[in-house]
Hints:
CATH superfamily: Alpha/Beta hydrolase fold, catalytic domain
Helix content: 40-55%
Strand order of the largest sheet: 1-2-4-3-5-6-7-8
Number of helices: 11
Number of strands: 8
Radius of gyration: 16 Å
Shape: globular
Strand content: 15-25%
CATH architecture: 3-Layer(aba) Sandwich
Largest sheet: 8 strands, mixed
Order of helices and strands: EEEHEHEHEHHHHEHEHHH
Number of domains: 1
Amino acid sequence: MTTPTAQSLTVFGQTLKLHSSTGSATPGPAFALVHGIGMSHRYLARLQNLLSVSADTYSLDLPGFGPNPRPGRPLSVEEHAAILVQVLLDAGVSRCVLVGHSMGTQIVAEAALQAPELVAGVVLIGPVVDRRRRTVLRQAFALAHDSLREAPSANLIVFTDYLRTGIRWYLSELKPMMTYPLEDRMPGMKCPALVLRGSRDPVARKEWCRELAETSPAGQFSEIEGHPHVVQHSAPAAVAELIRTFTRSIPSRADAK
């Protein structure tokens, strides 16, 4: 495990922050972690610390989120994905496994479509938005329900990050999230995908997660018993082990040819 270093970057005219844990001697793909709407790298920190033991690991604060200034207009999922890809290329990453949570799952899936040579695999934790529940009211109710199941430490991060993001930027990014059809993107992915949820997650329900895994050409589904939506914070060791096992199953570039 290495202590992450943080740096502010400007990519395609947008400011973001990259938290890097590098120097791993273990060969294999790097990991890149992407947060959900309203959030920052903070609720991915436990997972980053664990994954950095076995590979270089990066975590982003996307434009408008965390400490970053708000862009002058909403950014689409496709734009966030293009920024993610460019950040990783600029960091010298040649092959990686992308790990997204909530809205971050949309961004990593889109990045895999945009840069198939870079992305060896994707991990979708608590993916959104369930096509059967694609209304703001249903999503708001599910998030409120989930807050009753989360640990106090998770809720503290979530609520303080929401306050830092602000209602205006949150609502600006809500429409791109609600309209991005993740289920239509999965079949086009060339890399393996792991769809992961906590068994007590009211946001990413089991039927929806299984559907995403089954529509991916090389999809897997896993569930961590007894944990809610922010499972990477409440069960980081279990999530990290599933990600490592998944990563070991990905063919190397030489084997894939």
